[in-house]
Amino acid sequence: MRRIGIDVGGTNTDAVLIQGAEVLGAVKTPTTEDVTAGVRTALAGLMAGRGNGGEGIQAVMIGTTHFTNAVVQRRDLMKVAALRIGLPASAALGPFVDWPPDLAARVRGEVAMVRGGHEYDGRPLVPLDRAAIREAGRRFAGGGYTSVAVCGIFSPLTAECEDEAAALLREEAPDLRITLSHDLGRIGLLERENVALLNACLQDLARKTARAFSQAIQDSGIHAPLYLTQNDGTIMRAEVAERFPVYCFASGPTNSMRGAAFLSGIEDGVVVDVGGTTTDIGCLVHGFPREANNAVEIGGVRTLFRMPDLLSLGLGGGTEIAGDPARIGPGSVGYRLTREALVFGGTQLTASDIAVAAGIVEIGDAGRVRHLDRGFVSATLARMQAMIAEGVDRVKTEAGEVPLIAVGGGSFLIPERLEGTSRVVRVPHHAVANAVGAAIAQVSGEVDQIFSGLPREEAIESARRQAEARAVEGGARRESLKTVEVEDLPLAYLPGNALRVKVRVIGDIA
Amino acid sequence: MDRELQAEELELLATGAWILGAGGGGSPYLSYLNARNLYAEGTRVRILDPAALQDDDLVAVVSNMGAPLVGQERLADAQFAAKPVRMMEEYLGRKFSAVMSVEIGGGNALQPVLVAAVTGLPVVDADAMGRAFPEAQMTSFAIAGLPMFPLTLADIRDNEVIVSRAASWKWMERISRKVCTEVGSIAATCKAPRTGKEVRDHGILYTVTKAIGLGRLVHEARRVHDDPVRALVAAESGKVLFKGKILDSERRTTEGFLRGRARIEGLAENRGSRFELAFQNEFVVGWLDGAVAITVPDIICVLDTVSGEAVGTESLRYGQRVSVVALPAPPILLTPKGLEHVGPRAFGYDLDYTSVFERAA
Fold first, then answer.
1. Do A396 and A283 lie in a common domain?
2. Which of A120, A151, A304 to mutate to test the interface with B (most CBs of B within 10 A)?
3. How many domains are contained in chain A?
């Protein structure tokens, strides 16, 4: 069976056609303003010369930075309503507190705070104020809101309040799209609520984008379901994924890491993806990116949810070099590299020019950088490589030597030997590793929840059942499900045998 | 003898308090957000020089008690912080003249600011630890042998508890901890009230100003791209003990405390050396290449080498570039009685107090 993987990055749209473990074709094309035109071009490139057109293609997987960019650039965002369940606690710090003012001005709509929520051990904090929720629902509907974020105190522990609020809101305002915070985030009320609010404000864009992608696929003569890639390296059916656009955040670097693991056959190591403007460094654990366990800012908003643990450096093939000793970046010519870099006839000295002058890569016209001082070239290259080496060291979780997989169009900047690594592995198709990562993705279901008053085995079993149900909803074949991660952590500072259980299952697409 | 706490000082206070937390005390972030909001609404808080306290003035000593994790869901709130102070006034039948924090390290540094914003009381420029410590008897008031009761404790619902008497500091800790757990492992408290004279004689003075100053140094150094760690030790007669990267850290929660160890591998001038830290909420002992280099009550801080931001014991992770910095402890903690309460033996280490600072003769 064949699959198409597409990664829509800020600069390039990369696409591959794979069959089993074999990459049959790869295309790189500039990302377009409307995103889908680039996808159409990429699909046309992949299909060109293949007589049978879209026949035999099982699925199309697309990863996109579109939703992250929308938040960062403050565009295509909806004004949303917010319902907080937890009074009388946390009354002083309501939804949108500490948001950047320009973003809050675009997104912040009607806010309602009602009594309810839970204790750390699952007991109700106070009785849920159902009448106030109905009243809020009527106000939201009256105000013309179509998307709402609901966040209850300790909802990752027990979703009762949020689930009941959703049912009540639906009765009062049937057209409301509802994001529940426990579906997305972890303990940490504001950070989890922020994730829910971001998810709510992206609903229109997510639906529009997913449908435009589907249309582009159909128009290209391919009759296969669309999946969107998520930031844990797995996929979900587009109809499910469009409800959770925040899970697409950081899916680009995630796809690169998954692609690197697949292409190299290495499950544990460090992946360094050098693009045009930035270098992303992350750790592979059993073939998947390691998760961040700290708050991550997105467009200036503090969030805490499932995100890959990445270090991003302002160094890429297009990074601008100025002065002597050289100032390296952070500016970059980005996608204009093939016009503006010296070796391509431009006037801007870039990291790529230094690499060509040093003789470690052959691109463009080497004659145009022959005038550069050899000492300057080797000193500047050494400093860029030292930046990468330090980044790798910061990202590693242990002191021992680990393999490094080098991917991305600018990966020639990574030296053959790097302190703290056992070897530097280069793979074919490394420049489209992100699209490969999308193409090979499976469907996952995950639960990360605190259980109280249940024996350990029962808690884990309950988590596993929930995770499996989520995977099947996301498009997995039930018989193919495998449990890939079980972690339980007793929370000693909470009485009542509280246990945090995390279970992740993975399966093939149905 | 009092002055207005300026709006821009709130953030500086939060940054400085987090440093004085010595790895513990909880992040001041949520309390800071509250204070910032109250200032945005026009509220102002006054800081009172402890020298201006009359002998028989009554001072409320406040703190937020509970599990840090619960504090992430049931968020800091000024009305809630002020509740036990009102309870205490009712119980005593007397009005407070001012409010102060039990500990200047971590989130509790902002607690009296929140109380002050609601009650209009001034905040005394003092605390009872000069840093953060994990237990109630680790205060200058306990070291001075002052009584530890009564104590008022408020829950977010309509539950209020007064501990009118306790047999010892330990009993006060046990009883109040039990109540706190029952109401959801978070409670606002008002500790045994102090007279103006007691605060002047046994408080640790001018620590609010000190925390703001620390915050200012770090923010200013960052602004001009100077080295915040160097600026900090220079201004506070501190010492940089070690610069390196975190090699590993192990943590476990026992008896309500976060205990563990972290190892740091030397970089730059410390290349080839190792530093090891033990913590119980806060950093307690530091070893340089296996030899004890520093112990409590010296203030042992781990700071991000680049930003100067404090790194809490709960967020130590491999690869972080950190500087271990020592700041001098308040002299009261270094007396024989002080070391009984807060020296290394009080934390279960069979070690004598070891300092990197010259001790006054």
1. yes
2. A120
3. 4
Q: B257 to chain A: nearest residue by CA?
A: A493
pTM for the whole thing? 0.91
The pLDDT tens digits for A337-391 are: 889 999 999 999 999 999 999 999 999 999 999 999 999 999 999 999 999 998 9
Which domain range does residue A460 map to? 442-507
Contacts of residue A189 in chain B, CB cutoff 8 Å? 72-75
CATH value of B227-347 in 3.40.50.880, 2.40.390.10, 3.50.30.10, 2.30.110.10: 2.40.390.10
What are the sequence ranges of the domains in chain B? 2-205, 227-347
Question: B74, A98: Cβ pair inside 8 Å?
Answer: no
Nearest CA in chain B to A293: B315
B273–chain A Cβ distance below 8 A for any pair: no
Q: Do B184 and A125 touch (CB under 8 A)?
A: yes
Q: Could you tell me if A211 and A273 lie in one domain?
A: no
Q: What is the CATH number of domain B2-205?
A: 3.40.1610.10
Q: Do A396 and B321 touch (CB under 8 A)?
A: no
Sequence-ordered alpha helix ranges (H) in A265-342:
337-340
DSSP-derived secondary structure for A136-190 = HHHHHHHTT--EEEEEETTTTT--HHHHHHHHHHHHH-TT-EEEEGGGTB-S-HH
pLDDT of B361 over the 50 cut: no
B179 interfaces chain A, CB cutoff of 8 Å: no
Q: What is the pLDDT of residues A18-73, one digit of tens each?
A: 998 899 999 988 888 788 899 999 999 998 877 666 678 999 999 998 899 899 98
Kindly write down the DSSP assignment for every residue of A346-388, as one continuous string: -SB-BHHHHHHHTTS---S-GGGGTTS-HHHHHHHHHHHHHHH
Q: Count CA atoms closer than 13 A to A60's CA, side-chain side.
A: 30
